[in-house]
Amino acid sequence: MGNLLGIRTHQRDHGFGFELISEIMASDSKIISKCDAEGMSLSLDMSPDYRNSRLFGTACPEIIEILQSKDVTSNSHHYCVNTTDFERYGMAERF
């Protein structure tokens, strides 16, 4: 474990992306779990209220349809935040 901004973090390359942001916001490095999502292109499984999000709220319907129906997202993850932990740590209200 390392210490970044006062939060104990796993010794790995965060890339300062979603994993690190999640650990900081949750104040707990256990929010991150090992997963195998290396070199995958996937469609998005959006929550029913995705239109309330800042990211997708104003996206045109054609873009949403593509994201939901075609394998167009690039994924290269060794660590993930699962949906249960995302909600348990109150992250859903923040993103």
TrEMBL record:
Gene3D superfamilies associated with the record: 3.40.50.880
GO cellular component terms, semicolon-separated: vacuole
InterPro entries reported for this sequence: Class_I_gatase-like (IPR029062), Pept_C26_g-glut_hydrolase (IPR015527)
Single GO molecular function: gamma-glutamyl-peptidase activity
Lineage: superkingdom: Eukaryota
GO biological process: tetrahydrofolylpolyglutamate metabolic process
PANTHER family, alphabetized: FOLATE GAMMA-GLUTAMYL HYDROLASE (PTHR11315:SF0), PROTEASE FAMILY C26 GAMMA-GLUTAMYL HYDROLASE (PTHR11315)
Descriptive protein name: Uncharacterized protein
Organism: Ramazzottius varieornatus
